[in-house]
Amino acid sequence: MSEEKTNVMRLLEQKKVPYTPHQYPHQGGMAVDGATVAAVLGRDPASVFKTLVTRGTTKANYVFVVPVLAELDLKKAARAVGEKSIEMIHVKELTPLTGYVRGGCSPIGMKKRFKTVLDQRAADQAAILVSAGKIGCQVELAPGDLAGLVGAGFADIIKE
């Protein structure tokens, strides 16, 4: 299978951020859950992260990057970005807001730069996998490189 470069990969190359591309099979543009992605790629699900987009009471949008098997704790997440509360955005808002589809949303290269928080567990990993901006594609990179690229901080943002 020839490797198709995504905008995420081009951006990483442009910024000279080392990464490893990974592809996984999927049903014609249908998102698969993160646990399946981890299994297909032979990875510990703790190293595979999903990208979640939220909106705060101030109407600002935020991006949270959490392990695929974890659930975002909205209260912890709100505290991490200084909001009273946050909620997930509706899936129909995702593409117009970020340029990405559900299941292919990457924290890298969104239409606008949003305040981004990586779950602190990412910092314990040598490398993590995040979406390459398209269903079926992931990029593996160092969490510090990802944080530096998107201006993210680390915080405890998942439900225990």
Strand content: 15-25%
Number of helices: 5
Give the radius of gyration: 15 Å
The ordered string of helix (H) and strand (E) elements is HEHEEHEHEEEHE
Please give the number of β-strands: 8
Shape: globular
Work out the helicity level: 10-25%
Structural class: alpha/beta
Main sheet characteristics: 5 strands, mixed
Mean pLDDT: 95
Low-confidence stretches: none
N- to C-terminal distance: 39 Å
Strand order of the largest sheet: 4-2-3-5-8
Question: What can you see in these coordinates?
Answer:
The protein is of the alpha/beta class and 160 residues long. The protein has helices at 7-14, 34-40, 74-81, 91-98, 143-150; strands spanning 20-23, 49-56, 61-67, 86-88, 115-119, 128-131, 137-141, 153-155. It is built from five helices and eight strands, in the order H-E-H-E-E-H-E-H-E-E-E-H-E. The strands form two sheets. Strands 4-2-3-5-8 form a five-stranded mixed sheet. Strands 1-7-6 form a three-stranded antiparallel sheet. The relative contact order is 0.24.
List descriptors.
alpha/beta, 24% strand, five-stranded mixed sheet, 24% helix, globular
What's a concise summary of this model?
The chain is 24% helix and 24% strand. The chain is α/β, with parallel strands linked by helices and 160 residues long. 38% of the residues are buried.
Q: Which helices and strands, and how do they pair?
A:
Layout: H1 7-14, E1 20-23, H2 34-40, E2 49-56, E3 61-67, H3 74-81, E4 86-88, H4 91-98, E5 115-119, E6 128-131, E7 137-141, H5 143-150, E8 153-155
Parallel strand pairs: 3-5, 5-8
Antiparallel strand pairs: 1-7, 2-3, 2-4, 6-7
